[in-house]
């Protein structure tokens, strides 16, 4: 049994790049073909043996809770029809997973959102998934790959991928020493650096395994870029102690927080499902 049992989904953001679609619908509920982004993330967690799901929500996010709940009227209407099978994946998630929710009242950055989730996690290692980073793999999911690494290194792990140098300003970026194939011992992390200031082109994407002390570290982390509490700044304090691994994962990631990435993910998934 994996020692990482819980996964936190920060899901309180407004999704302003998808207005007006996200005016009344959470961006995490945007569908890639027929499943919402957050369901793909939960399925990735399940693939890693994680079944205790925590979600940090905000105003207007009720649809997330409703999605992972029974809809008696809908199920009554489709009972016995060929439509019933379309809910099988969601039913399986509800049978195998438990869901807990808390609200982030103010938007103060990803680090703050994770800190808000402390009440759902407690003092144990946990995964973090940003649902708008949609990842596809041929073998183990990204989280499953990272959980195996955590069992070896017993420290915080961030998923990284190479990005064009002129896009580093969009990401947290690491600098580190290669320990093994695709595995880096992180020495430095910079939040959204200008291309000329970036220590590398290895960008952090929305998959983390965090050690239990991260909440204490976040509490002592001052606001950084844009006055927000950045998880990159908190992880930098751990990195100074040699306690952060950067993992260049096997798989492909789509940035579904952008319209282009969302369309690319939809087209890719549709083609894969209709082969």
The CATH architecture can be given as Alpha-Beta Complex
Total domains, how many? 1
* Side-by-side strand order of the widest sheet: 5-4-1-6-11-8-12-10-9
The level of helicity is 25-40%
What oligomeric assembly is this protein in? single chain
The strand count comes to: 13
Radius of gyration: 18 Å
Q: Could you tell me the mean pLDDT?
A: 92
What is the structural class? alpha/beta
CATH class bucket: Alpha Beta
Question: What are the key terms here?
Answer:
nine-stranded mixed sheet; globular; two-stranded antiparallel sheet; single chain; alpha/beta; Spore Coat Polysaccharide Biosynthesis Protein SpsA, Chain A; 10 helices
In words, what does this structure look like?
The chain is α/β, with parallel strands linked by helices. It has helices spanning 37-47, 62-67, 72-78, 88-96, 110-116, 118-121, 142-153, 214-219, 231-239, 259-273; strands spanning 6-10, 31-32, 35-36, 52-57, 98-103, 126-129, 133-136, 156-162, 172-180, 183-191, 202-210, 244-248, 252-255. The strands form 3 sheets. A 9-stranded mixed sheet has the order 5-4-1-6-11-8-12-10-9, sandwiched between helices. A two-stranded antiparallel sheet has the order 2-3. Strands 7-13 form a two-stranded antiparallel sheet. Helix 5 (110-116) packs across helix 9 (231-239). The two termini are 34 Å apart.
């Amino acid at each position: 049994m994996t020692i990482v049992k819980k996964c936190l989904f920060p899901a309180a953001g407004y999704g302003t790049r998808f207005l007006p679609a996200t005016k009344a619908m959470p961006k995490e509920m945007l569908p890639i073909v027929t499943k919402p982004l957050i369901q793909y993330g939960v399925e990735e967690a399940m693939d890693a043996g994680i079944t205790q799901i925590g979600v940090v929500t905000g105003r207007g996010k009720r649809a997330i809770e409703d999605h992972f709940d029974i809809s008696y009227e809908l199920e009554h209407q489709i009972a016995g029809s060929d439509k019933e099978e379309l809910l099988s994946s969601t039913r399986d998630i509800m049978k195998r997973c438990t869901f807990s929710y808390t609200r982030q009242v103010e938007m103060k950055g990803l680090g703050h959102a994770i800190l808000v989730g402390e009440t759902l996690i407690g003092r144990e290692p946990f995964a973090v998934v940003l649902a708008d980073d949609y990842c596809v793999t041929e073998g183990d999911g990204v989280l499953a790959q990272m959980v195996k690494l955590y069992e070896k290194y017993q420290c915080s792990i961030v998923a990284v991928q190479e990005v064009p140098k002129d896009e580093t300003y969009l990401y947290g970026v690491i600098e580190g020493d290669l320990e093994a194939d695709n595995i880096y011992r992180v020495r430095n992390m910079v939040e959204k650096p200008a291309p000329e200031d970036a220590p590398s082109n290895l960008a952090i994407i929305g998959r983390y395994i965090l050690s239990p002390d991260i909440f204490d570290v976040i509490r002592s982390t001052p606001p950084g870029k844009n006055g927000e509490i950045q998880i990159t700044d908190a992880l930098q304090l751990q990195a100074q102690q040699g306690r952060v691994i950067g993992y260049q994962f096997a798989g492909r990631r789509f940035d579904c927080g952008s319209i282009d990435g969302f369309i690319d993910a939809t087209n890719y998934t549709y083609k894969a499902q209709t082969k």
